[in-house]
Amino acid sequence: MSTVTFIIGDQIKEVKAENGKTILQIGLDAGVPIENACGGNGFCTTCLCSVKEGSNNLSERNDREENMGILEDPERLGCQAKVKGDVTVELLDQ
Ligand code: FES
């Protein structure tokens, strides 16, 4: 289990999560309102996050992120980045 801390505007929400799930899945399961216009398929960037802490506790950047131009930290697509340890993310496109 890991802890994912979501920063949503001026609110903070901590969620315990199973490793291997995406930031998007974890957030939605916990009632965090993450936009996901393409349904989590890596084609829209509405789930864009800024990783504040724990970027090496996420899966490697994948082709879908690279195709959408999400190339450098701290930006990650919430629907593609899988959690493998504690991480703090700020939701950008809400
Ligand atoms: S939900 Fe569309 S890119 Fe993540």
What is the CATH superfamily?
Answer: Beta-grasp domain
Mean of all residue-level pLDDT scores:
96
Question: Into how many domains do the coordinates divide?
Answer: 1
Write out the distinct hetero groups bound to the structure: FE2/S2 (inorganic) cluster
Shape: globular
Number of helices: 2
Supply the CATH class: Alpha Beta
Strand-residue fraction? Answer: 25-35%
Span from first to last CA?
A: 26 Å
Number of beta-strand segments? 5
Please identify, by name, the CATH architecture: Roll
3D architecture notes:
- By secondary structure, the chain is α+β, with helices and mostly antiparallel strands.
- It has one domain: Beta-grasp domain (Ubiquitin-like (UB roll)).
- It is 13% helix and 30% strand.
- The longest helix is centred in the first third of the chain and has 7 residues, at 23-29.
- The mean pLDDT is 96.
List the helices and strands and how they pair.
Blueprint: E1 2-8, E2 11-17, H1 23-29, E3 48-53, H2 63-67, E4 75-77, E5 87-91
Parallel strand pairs: 1-5
Antiparallel strand pairs: 1-2, 3-4, 3-5
Summarize the structure in short.
The chain has 94 residues and is of the alpha+beta class. It has helices at 23-29, 63-67; strands at 2-8, 11-17, 48-53, 75-77, 87-91.
Task: Give the key terms.
94 residues; alpha+beta; Ubiquitin-like (UB roll); five-stranded mixed sheet; globular; binds FE2/S2 (inorganic) cluster
